[in-house]
Amino acid sequence: MAWRDARKSKARLFLFISSIVIGIAALVAINSFSDNLKNDINNQAKELLGADLELGSNDSTFNYAFVDTLDYEISYENSFASMVYFPKTQESRLVDVRALAGEFPYYGTIETEPIEAESTFRDGQAKALVDQSVMIQYGIELGDSIKVGQVTFKVEGSLISSPSQSFAATLVAPAVYIPMKYLNETGLVQRGSRVYYRRFYKFNDLPEDFDFEAQVEADEDTLRLSEIRVETIEERKEETGETFQNLANFLNLVAFVALLLGCVGVASAVHIYMKEKVKTVAILRCMGAKGRDAFQVFLIQIAVVGLIGSILGAFAGTLIQSVLPKVFADFLLVEVTLSLSWPSIIGGIVTGLFISVLFALSPLIAVRKASPLISIRGVESTSNTRDPLRWLVYAGIAVFIIGFAFVQMKDLQDSIVFTFAILVAFGFLGLVAKFFMWLVKKLFPSSWSYVWRQSLANLYRPNNQTLVLIASIGLGTALITTLYFIQGMLISQVEITTDENRPNMMVFDMQTYQKDGIAELAKSYDLPVLQEVPIVTMRLKSVNDTTYEQILADTTIERRGGIFRREWRVTYRDTLIESEKVVQGELRKVNTPNDSIFVSLEEDYATRNNIALGDKLVWDVQGVPITTYLGSTREIDWERVQTNFLALFPSNTLEPAPQFHVLITRVPSTEVGALFQRDVVKQYPSVSVIDIGLILNTVDDILDKIAFVIRFMALFSILTGLLVLVSSVILSKFQRIKESVLLRTMGGSKKQILTINSLEYFFLGSLASLSGILLALAGSWGLAFYSFDSTFIPNPLPMVVVFVSITSLTVVIGLLNSRGILSKPPLEVLRNEIQ
Amino acid sequence: MDHILEVSQLTKTYNSGARALTVLSDINFSIKAGDKFSIVGSSGSGKTTLLGLCAGLDRASSGNVLLNGVSLSKLNEDERAAVRNQHVGFVFQNFQLLPTLTALENVMVPMELRGEKGIQKYAMELLDRVGLAKRHDHYPTQLSGGEQQRISIARAFSNRPKILFADEPTGNLDEETSQKIEDLIFQLNKEEGTTLVMVTHDMELAAKTDRIVRLKGGVILDDSLTNSPATE
């Protein structure tokens, strides 16, 4: 019976379920991709690190006793930030110089172009591998020269990727590999230089499954005290997995929202479908069918079509999956293989089937109560608001959403908040729709022209879809607009130097004897010295006489160890700069050598670490202990391009300490900036220059790439939203035909009927998009306030764009849909649809 | 008297897959203004198709319909709609009221489509003539079948049509209500001097018109005048 009844409605049933297809496609695509990625991370774990173990420290003489007992091969990498100079273009750039000795990587490769450059650059000559982005940026070709300090290297290859280097890291400080034996000749490593020393080990006699994690954990305290950072394969695997997990969670949410929109589509479609089927049910009941029998007929129909939709969705998702590695290519450290992920496919099909049935249940259960009288009397309400089963279905839906969100987010509280937010959004949209219908009825503009009145009246006609359309279009709009707002918010946070008077170039690592010369050089280019700041590096030894060692030994002390582990960069002055203000206490000067020294800390940092005014802080300034007290706390605007410091010493304290200097200036153009950089590097090879404009460009690049990923994923929501829109509009066609044809019969012109339809869709589209935008404003404000810790200033442009596009889209789809009705003779339609 | 409707060599063929199905074949007749005319025949004989073609609701495959001197075959859908709006009234078996509009608003629709102003008074007058003035603010769902048909009759007369097409106007009503509706149609028809073209399979009702065309298998079997008292 289910099949026989469905024969005449196949097209409509497929339309109902098409939303499921996209939702499931999104889910399967993302889950398959995640699955494959997880497998690849496992399979390529060794390649991720390139070695069995990586040790790193700021101290070249570090020592980890455990490894010395083993038989190993070793490679060394010393890395530091430095300017390099390209003689061909006479330009300079700050890069991450990596001097390499040994056969690293032991697993995987340093990916280069040409491929053999990875080994030929180690042939003992002065050859370098240069990050491909730098090569493109500066027009450097293979065989060109690159000057690192005093040594000129031949560019042997372009560096595409290497183990332990992520895309984001290369953008900020792109890498240049040089052979270790030339490091001293460059003259860049001197006393006080900030070099990071890495050692890569390959062990020859350890069993394959040796648990380094356990070993490292056992040696944790020793390693911390000696300031050795350890990376194991397992750890790298976890880190890579975690990085991806955040992305995966976001993607899963996008898929989930697409799926939810699909659910809305299913529920509304089945609702209208069942209204049309009530007569069939009544006839079946007249002939003795039980309510349950009729219910089963349609349940089977929905389930079968849901299953077909889900299978199609899973198939489409598997195809889409092949695109995802390209979309995420820049963010992934492993090569993702494409293979069928059966758990994702089966999971997707089961979810699709489950959703089809669950969301169809609410309109379906009404069938049980359909009276046989309908077949005789024609019209009867089948309202089932008092049916307790309906509430059970609603509860089931809520549990499903929370449960599914939990599966995706692995956090119950987040899942409940997310579900609540979705319900609030739906509730809001529902209320808006109801209120609008009530308002139109209440304040019906009787004096308006007929077409306006008819289009307004259609909004609350029997079987109207005002609520469904506003809810589905509104939610889609809200999601898309929120994505735009958040993206805009992130971008605006970095667009800080567009202001003409802001500094945009920073010269650092200047030794005291170099600073005057460099300042002179700046002046010769007419560049203002906006700030010239001395920086002293130091470590915190104790707070109120508690040392790091004591904290490690005594777990009852509630103080984080981070303040002791970090290398502090501190300046000294007696005045505030414009990016900071004192919140507590005051800046206190040191006038005589016997005065106590009162330092100032950043407010949040002091609070987080439980340091209060008057607390005693003892610093280790390159071997010399200095006792200070907390005299004030400051609030700092970190977004300003200034040299900002967590800790500030008064003048007359650190002047004799070894220090380097930073000079901040503003260059009027890229050309002047490039010339100035070139001269600085030529005359002072150990000094580094940061072109903030360049960094902002790269940050923009990263954001563009992220935005692309976000937009790509949002496409799923947009597509499902559109599909819901199309199917809702197509379904409402059956409601509209009768009116249009009647008006046509009574002499209504094409223009009049088109105007009535356009206006109706315009009301629906504009109200839905407006409500969606309102939701997005609220959502974005919430996200800005709670998640991004920033102020949300809505940009009116995306709002206008979204409003105009969604409204026009609704009208266009609606009109395209009515076109068929108008081109047919009224009699044909009257016979088909009415009689 | 002039002819308000002239049908000549009218044929309607539907293409159903590879097969062509002729539902009307070479139909010829004409109706004088003010006449009451009925088309009868069994189900599937082509009577509703003929009515639709005469009223310009569909296009003939060949032949011509001259309605109030205008050749419908030469007009496009919008032009035919304008003719309907100017000269034609309709009454359907299943009433066909707009569910979103009140009784009064439904009656006003044809005039509103013409862009007429100040029509409410006339619409109320029509409602009064069909005995439903007091129910003017009710929606179709709040009215019985007979009442809905009375509203649809008031609507049909609202644009002062020259010709009224009625498709089984009492087909969905009980005997008593049918009688009232028949009386109302004939009465308004007489008062307004409208031509009436009615499709019915009720021979008793057909006998009340001036002339009966009997269709069978898409051709005219018989075209005869009646001696109905209603014709006098």
TrEMBL record, chain B:
Key words of the record: ATP-binding, Nucleotide-binding, Transport
Domain ABC transporter residue range list: 5-232
Pfam families: ABC_tran
GO cellular component: membrane protein complex; plasma membrane
Domain of life: Bacteria
Similarity field: Belongs to the ABC transporter superfamily. Macrolide exporter (TC 3.A.1.122) family.
Gene Ontology terms, MF aspect: ATP binding; ATP hydrolysis activity; transmembrane transporter activity
Name recorded for this polypeptide: Putative ABC transport system ATP-binding protein
